[in-house]
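> example.struct
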């Protein structure tokens, strides 16, 4: 406990973990770093103090709060899961029951089970994966070595401390990987498991886990149209519920109206499986069509790539006079 990280979703020593807090943080932390998650976690708890509040909200509202956090299918599944848990009257207290909920896979089920309910399960995230690869000196490159590393990591739960307090043990492993057994330049002299680490004994800790060379990320192109009215409201569309940026507010991809469009440059954004270059065109009209979906340009809750495009369009429009 002495060297634990102090994170807003963690219960204090001696206090029971709140399953809602554990689940919300674990969903947000998927492929996202702690520093990015902190403000979003606080914002969600302020808007939805209980899971019942989250379940009662509209999916559009939830997606709005999620805007900028990325991997937007998580927001839709978060809402579906909240509704399922509210209907059940609480989270299931078994790994199998947790796995049956929308958006919860093996890792999240194990994390919530161990941390919130003290179940003898080990969540294997990137930190635990790295620790296991080094402790057992597993040289098979990722991603092919994931199953081998995960199987080896299951040996950790035979540890006496893991049996006594599965949640504390899991979080201690997270912290070990995040602060000592780091991806580069691991601090082996400070590691409590140094004497048992095969990679340290072999002098190869810093090179594990090995990673196969990634193929080049494909590049895609598109266009975003920024149309502002005299009050600096921007015309928006709602993306289809599935697919890229599903359910999120976005800028039009084709000209929404006839206007004096001007070039506003291009913006770059990297998604998991491809890179995207958006050419931005911008225009201003005295008024947007009656009934159109719009929001103040300065505060519109948009995905990061759309916020980049909107900012580029606003900068371009501020360089000249308004167009009718």
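> example.seq
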């Amino acid at each position: 406990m002495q060297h634990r990280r102090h994170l807003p979703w963690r219960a204090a020593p001696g206090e029971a973990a709140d399953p809602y807090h554990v689940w919300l943080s674990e969903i947000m932390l998927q492929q996202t770093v702690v520093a990015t998650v902190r403000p979003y976690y606080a914002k969600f708890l302020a808007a939805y103090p209980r899971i019942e509040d989250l379940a009662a909200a509209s999916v559009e509202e939830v997606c709005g709060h999620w805007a900028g956090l990325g991997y937007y299918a998580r927001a839709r599944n978060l809402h579906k899961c909240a509704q399922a848990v509210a209907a059940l009257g609480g989270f299931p207290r078994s790994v199998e029951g947790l796995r049956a909920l929308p958006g919860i896979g093996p890792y999240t089920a194990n994390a919530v089970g161990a941390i919130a309910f003290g179940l003898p399960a080990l969540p294997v995230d990137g930190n635990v994966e790295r620790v296991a690869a080094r402790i057992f000196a597993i040289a098979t490159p990722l991603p092919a070595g994931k199953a081998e590393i995960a199987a080896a990591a299951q040996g950790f739960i035979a540890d006496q401390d893991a049996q006594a307090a599965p949640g504390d043990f899991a979080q201690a492993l997270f912290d070990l990987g995040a602060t000592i057994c780091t991806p580069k330049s691991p601090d082996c002299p400070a590691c409590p498991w140094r004497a048992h680490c095969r990679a340290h004994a072999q002098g190869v800790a810093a090179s594990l886990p090995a990673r196969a060379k990634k193929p080049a990320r494909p590049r895609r192109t598109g266009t975003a149209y920024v149309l502002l009215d005299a009050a600096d409201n921007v015309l928006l569309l709602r993306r289809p519920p599935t697919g890229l940026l599903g359910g999120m507010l976005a800028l039009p991809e084709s000209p929404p109206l006839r206007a004096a469009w001007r070039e506003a440059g291009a913006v770059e954004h990297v998604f998991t499986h491809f890179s995207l270059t958006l050419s931005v065109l911008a225009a201003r009209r005295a008024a947007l069509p009656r009934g159109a979906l719009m929001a103040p340009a300065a505060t519109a809750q948009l995905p990061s790539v759309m916020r980049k495009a909107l900012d580029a369009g606003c900068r371009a429009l501020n360089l000249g006079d308004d167009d009718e």
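> remarks
The longest helix spans residues 73-88.
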